[in-house]
Design a protein that fits this description.
Distance between the termini: 27 Å
Helix content: 25-40%
Number of strands: 7
Structural class: alpha+beta
Order of helices and strands: HHHHEEEEHHHEEE
Strand order of the largest sheet: 2-1-3-4-5-6-7
Radius of gyration: 18 Å
Largest sheet: 7 strands, mixed
Shape: globular
Length: 265
């Protein structure tokens, strides 16, 4: 892959992560890490890209819900290896917010993230297709998860984006929202989720570290050759650092970034 092609793939990865991550941050790349879907489409130069869908307003609440709690529990647990997710708390989205469907014992919390976890400026903020299994460790569950759960409650109550931004600023000012604790971390290893339209599926298995705003450079995120992806988001949202890993939560190998994704006939 030429340097120019690598840069182009990097920019695609930036857009994919920007649309879906908690905090709405983007990434700056070293090795490219495209999803199976995007790698496949990149190999078909003659096929025009489909028009990007628009999500200017919230869809009916029912479109954001899974068919059953059992389906959502199963999908949430694919975020991390069974050795972790089997003993984790599992949250399920209801009409008014998330509820604890399974009480675990290892401090991890698994749930299926919707795309309002993205930055407030994300074009896919209201995308009802998004289903991104995530599994927070105890420190992330203590300091990051409350923000997402509260934002979910606001969304389902019909609060406007601007009001959510104002409430978020106020929550940080009165310290009801916290900066990420040291060691705050999560798994996103599911191959069954749908991150967003840009990814067209689960993107690539990765782990995430939550750090205070302004810390991306400390972790060498996005520097040439660095395996750590990440850049600063807004001043009211944590910075999220991404590290792609080679295996999905079920232990199977993910496609090698930059290699064509083929199907047997």
């Amino acid at each position: 892959m030429t340097h120019a092609m690598q840069k182009k793939t990097c920019r695609a990865a930036i857009e994919i992560i920007l649309l879906a991550s908690l905090g709405g941050i983007g990434v700056a790349c070293a090795p490219p890490a495209a999803s199976p879907a995007s790698v496949a489409s990149a190999t078909s130069a003659e096929t025009p890209a489909p028009p990007r869908r628009s999500y200017p307003t919230m869809a009916p609440v029912e479109q954001y819900l899974e068919k059953s709690p059992a389906d959502e529990i199963a999908l949430a647990r694919t975020a991390a290896p069974p050795s972790i997710s089997a003993d984790a708390d599992v949250l399920v989205l209801g009409a008014h917010g998330y509820e604890t469907a399974v009480k675990g014992k290892n401090g991890f919390v698994c749930f299926v993230q919707r795309n309002w976890a993205a930055g407030f400026e994300s074009a896919e903020f209201w995308n009802p297709r998004s289903r991104a299994p995530n599994c927070f460790n105890a420190e992330a569950a203590r300091t990051e998860l409350p923000q997402y759960l509260k934002r979910t409650e606001w969304v389902l109550a019909g609060v406007s984006k601007q009001e959510m931004i104002d409430r978020t600023r106020a929550a940080f000012a009165d310290q009801s929202f916290k900066m990420p604790a040291p060691g705050a971390f999560s798994f996103m290893l599911s191959k069954d989720g749908y991150l967003n339209d840009e990814a067209g599926g689960p993107w690539y298995p990765h782990v995430m570290f939550f750090v205070p705003h302004g810390q991306a450079a400390v972790w060498a995120a996005g520097l040439d050759g660095s395996p750590v992806l990440g850049q600063e988001g807004s001043d009211i949202e944590s910075t999220v650092l991404f590290i792609p890993v080679p295996r999905w939560s079920d232990g199977s190998l993910a496609p090698i970034p930059g290699q064509p994704h083929t199907h047997s006939s």
